[in-house]
NAD(+) diphosphatase
Amino acid sequence: MLRPLRILLSPPKCPLTRCCSGYVSRMRFVNRLQEDDDACAAALQNGRIFLFHSLSPLLQRTNRETFRTSALTASDLQPILKNLGSDGSLLKESVLIGCSEQNQAEFCLDVGQLDQAAVEEQCGGTFVDLRKAFFLLKGAEAPLVAKGQALLRWHQTNRFCSATGQPTQRNQAGSHRFCSSSSTTYYPQMSPVVIVLVSDGTRCLLGRQASFPRGLYSALAGFCNMGETLEEALRREVAEEVGLEVQNISYSSSQHWPFPHSSFMVACHASVSPTHSQVDVDHSELEEARWFSLDEITCALQVKAPPRRGDLPVIWLPPPHAVANRLITEWAGLQRHGKDGP
Ligand SMILES: NC(=O)C1=CN([C@@H]2O[C@H](COP(=O)(O)OP(=O)(O)OC[C@H]3O[C@@H](n4cnc5c(N)ncnc54)[C@H](O)[C@@H]3O)[C@@H](O)[C@H]2O)C=CC1
């Protein structure tokens, strides 16, 4: 007979003062768990575990429209895994992703080898593709599942040493893998990407790829090449994609972006002189790029959901989770207050 399942909903955000007071101890706790396998195994027994199935996170519907992540404790999960025919070793495949504000270690576990419907039934949730889940979740929950999925994916695709072909072994936290034949330690990787909102003083430049949904425009983005600085990558990408030379580069913010794989997005503003703003699009990279006025951006920022089939054509922008949205919002705010971006 199964014990009643206790689903732990992610805690609401705590007041700033409390977050700050516990921050140092939480960071040191996570760091210790990454270094000490025994401590990590013990923390797993008392931790919160976010389930994934074939890299899709388990979500709970809170009402008709909204979803939240759900986490189980090890003691809730163990009987479920056993009931579904898994031995006790599966739990140890959990990877550490952080520590809650209640000082509880947080882990992710992919149960892709178990029957999806059976896990959903026993856990009272639904596994949702990350592309959908990322935009259904609010606040800190979206980056949390993105981080968990990225780490689980990295382990699934780095089981062997690229030098010797021998299997690699992970530490308990999952913060690295080790090949004992070549004594090589492998760490999870992100690809650096620069994303830039170019302004000519009164307008900003957005582009769209042919693969984007109809009407979606975004800031220009591109992967950094080996050996490049961010500034070099930014200048090169803008030159390649739209034939412009930018100046006045300023940093805005950054984010981990899980699509299609882990990118480390560094978001910047930059400018061109209004007398040198003629766009020359490389159509092998972009379908279109053009300048947008503040009025056009203000309208586009008000479109809160992608247009549906049959709706009138409308220009819309990446959602608030995307750092591109932050760049565009920052630019619009500065324009409204009479200052250009960078
Ligand atoms: N979070 C946000 O606000 C936004 C995120 N992005 C992300 O930025 C990234 C780059 O954007 P785009 O250049 O438009 O992407 P893209 O997917 O069009 O990639 C461009 C080219 O870069 C090369 N490439 C792919 N993966 C690479 C890697 N890991 N390292 C080096 N080169 C690689 C390939 O030749 C690919 O054709 C994408 O992951 C995209 O999802 C793009 C716009 C907004």
The chain has two domains: 23-159, 191-340. Residues 191-340 form a domain with the Nucleoside Triphosphate Pyrophosphohydrolase fold (CATH 3.90.79.10). Residues 1-20 have pLDDT under 50 and may be disordered.
